[in-house]
Specification:
By secondary structure, this protein is an alpha/beta fold. 41% of the residues lie in helices and 15% in strands. The protein folds into two domains: 85 residues, Leucine Dehydrogenase, chain A, domain 1 (Rossmann fold, 3-Layer(aba) Sandwich), CATH 3.40.50.10860; 128 residues, Rossmann fold, CATH 3.40.50.720. Helix 1 packs parallel to helix 10, helix 2 crosses helix 10 and helix 6 crosses helix 10. Guanine binds next to strand 4 and helix 6.
Length: 286
């Protein structure tokens, strides 16, 4: 294997250690950051994510509450909860877990969260600020990828970064962050005809397609930095997950690569905590 493996677990731990220290410093002044996570319905994977977000916030010394609503929740009831959390002075970050059950308008809910408390970075005001190159609350997974790159000493400036996937949660904000960091950015998606050819030009390749091990070694430029955002179940194996990149063949060609699990995943929660503290500090005027 040629590539250096990027240890997301270790880097996430370092980020959390720094946040714990900052949380303690602020707690000494009586300031406690608060995160509210909202789960509608009973999707088991979402329940695991939401519980782990709430637990991590507590571990870092933050105030943390979880709201679980039944699948029958109406748009008006969910909107009322968001309004209540917007007005709650102990809450600085609000996360409504997506996807919401069918029938609920997710975008309307994301728009209802106060931009200042939007720790997901999904509110159009924060998305607009990001694309205009301003400092703002940014979606956690792409923000985590930027921290991974920085820790590995990878400066995107002047590099060709190829983002495979155009979701609002990962692909688009990822492209905006890489552009802000002065990369030349290409966004590819399911309708891109010459995907392999474009991927092979990438100095930094971000895989966020949601297709199990789709990007094999022959999609990768020798020496490239490969970041795998995919979390795909492996058919026939209970609770085994793999990425969008075929790790073994890609690692023969890449210069650096993130594993799945243990790469980008741990960074997402760490960045949610970072966003919560950032939101709280902005609200406090720190
Ligand atoms: N579902 C999958 N990823 C995310 C995320 O980052 N935020 C929210 N709110 N829901 C998600």
């Amino acid at each position: 294997m040629a590539a250096q493996v990027i240890d997301g677990k270790l880097i996430a731990q370092q980020v959390k250690d720094e946040l714990r220290a900052e949380t303690a410093r602020l707690a000494a002044q009586g300031k406690v950051a608060g995160l509210a996570v909202v789960l509608v319905g009973d999707d088991p994977a979402s329940a695991v994510y939401v519980t782990s977000k709430e637990k991590t916030a507590r571990e870092l010394g933050m105030h943390s509450v979880q709201h679980r609503l039944p699948v029958s929740t109406t748009q008006a009831e969910l909107a009322a909860l968001v309004d209540q959390l917007n007005a709650d002075e102990h809450i600085h970050g609000i996360l409504v877990q997506s996807p919401l059950p069918a029938g609920l308008d997710q975008d309307a809910i994301f728009r209802r969260i106060l931009p200042a408390k939007d720790v997901d970075g999904f509110h159009p005001e924060n998305v607009g600020r990001l694309w205009q190159g301003h400092d703002t609350l940014v979606a956690c997974t792409p923000a985590g990828v930027m921290v991974l790159l920085a820790h590995m000493g990878v400066d995107p400036a002047g590099k060709h970064a190829v983002v495979v996937g155009r979701s609002n949660i990962v692909g688009k904000p990822m492209a905006a962050l890489l552009l802000k960091a002065n990369a030349t950015v290409t966004i590819c998606h399911s309708k891109t005809p010459n995907l392999q050819e474009i991927c092979r030009q990438a100095d930094i390749l971000i895989a966020a397609v949601g297709k199990l091990e789709m990007l094999t070694g022959d999609y990768i430029k020798p020496g490239a930095v490969v970041i795998d955002v995919g979390i795909n179940p492996v058919p026939g194996f209970k609770s085994k997950i793999r990425g969008d990149v075929h790790f073994d063949s890609a690692a023969q060609v890449a210069g650096m690569i993130t594993p799945v699990p243990g790469g980008v995943g741990p960074m997402t929660i760490a960045m949610l905590m970072a966003n919560t503290l950032k939101a709280a500090k902005a609200i406090w005027g720190e």
